[in-house]
Amino acid sequence: MLGLFERRATTRAVRRTIVPTGRERRFRRQDFILSKTDLKGRITYANDTFLAISGFTEKEVLGAPHSIVRHPEMPRCVFQYFWETISSGKEIFAYVVNLCKNGDHYWVLAHVTPTFDGDGKIIGYHSNRRSPDPAAVAEIKRIYGELLTIERNHQDRKAGLAASRAALDRMIADKGLCFNEFTLSL
């Protein structure tokens, strides 16, 4: 059996070779994708639905960073928002496109919450993902496309992230909503 470091290294090697196919996978509305991570985002639990749709085995995902399923068409500023929110002890809702092991992708409406110990200290994160409304996905694809264009128009990654985050913040503020309300309004 591989040690944690070796498993992550193996997973990263698999991740780097994944080329998006453009094919979308879907899962049933009654199914939920569940996963848990530690404080650094390494997967500690993945349910059968997660494994079935992503194409990864339990051995491949346990101990791997949750970003193993990160699709290159997912704006970095959304994940920045994610981490700021959940690490502060709050829940977040967001639309996410994930990458399967074979390069296919799938959209989810994610609900991520911190997991607390008996003293109220955050010890990890829990994510429930469900099949999203197709109309919401069409709208979020447009929004994410704008954010990705902003990110990619900067040679400096930090500047691109800051610019796309500012654009996302403006979009949300223009609607007079918080991020979760913005997500659920789509």
Give the SSE map.
Blueprint: H1 4-16, E1 32-37, E2 43-46, H2 48-54, H3 58-61, H4 76-87, E3 92-99, E4 105-116, E5 122-130, H5 134-152, H6 157-174, H7 179-185
Helix pairs in contact: 4-6, 5-6
Task: Outline the structure in words.
The chain is an alpha+beta fold. It has one domain: PAS domain (Beta-Lactamase, 2-Layer Sandwich), CATH 3.30.450. 43% of the residues lie in helices and 21% in strands. It contains seven helices and five strands; from the N terminus they run H-E-E-H-H-H-E-E-E-H-H-H. The chain has helices at residues 4-16, 48-54, 58-61, 76-87, 134-152, 157-174, 179-185; strands at residues 32-37, 43-46, 92-99, 105-116, 122-130. It has a five-stranded antiparallel sheet with strand order 2-1-5-4-3. Helix 4 (76-87) packs across helix 6 (157-174). Residues 1-15 have low confidence and may be disordered.
List the total number of helices. 7
Q: Share of helix among residues?
A: 40-55%
Which CATH class is shown? Alpha Beta
What is the fold named in CATH at topology level? Answer: Beta-Lactamase
Order of helices and strands: HEEHHHEEEHHH
Q: How would a textbook summarize the main sheet?
A: 5 strands, antiparallel
Count of spatially separate domains = 1
Mean pLDDT: 92
In short:
Helices cover 43% and strands 21% of the residues. It has seven helices and five strands.
What labels describe this entry?
five-stranded antiparallel beta sheet; globular; 21% strand; Beta-Lactamase; 7 helices; disordered N terminus; 186 residues; alpha+beta
